[in-house]
């Protein structure tokens, strides 16, 4: 009973007082959390998001595929490294910490990434403590910028609090893509 009460209070506190990561210091979030749709089914999450980047597709592509430097501008990553590379396939290993309120979880993932230059990035998890990871990012020229559509299906290999899991995933996704969008604009 006390354990349930503790986790309930922890979840409630995290929902009421989310920690604003590195983006608070660097500027406002460019991707509002309300633009990220997250659904949970058991231990799995589905994430959908659409955003507009006010940069040409080539600039958006350059940042989205700059995996070697993600650790420099994506706030929850401590390390991002390309293990293998061919013209259209990469193997990328990343480490970081997901934070929300008082909750934090270390994560590690290795993904095989298929590139369709300047139009699509597909990722498939092949290792780490994320049990399942499938994602696709589609880029499309729109006016003077780029429309980005993202879809992911993720099953973490570590415990997520039941009440705040979707909020944590929503927060982390918005924070990561805000950082990428900020980097796209900075590099212009």
From TrEMBL:
One Pfam family here: Polyketide_cyc
SUPFAM superfamilies per UniProt: Bet v1-like
Record keywords, A-Z: Signal
Signal peptide residues on this chain, from the entry's feature table: 1-24
Domain Coenzyme Q-binding protein COQ10 START: from-to ranges: 54-163
The family this protein is said to belong to: Belongs to the ribosome association toxin RatA family.
Full protein name: SRPBCC family protein
Originating species: Polaromonas jejuensis
Lineage start: Bacteria, Pseudomonadati, Pseudomonadota, Betaproteobacteria, Burkholderiales
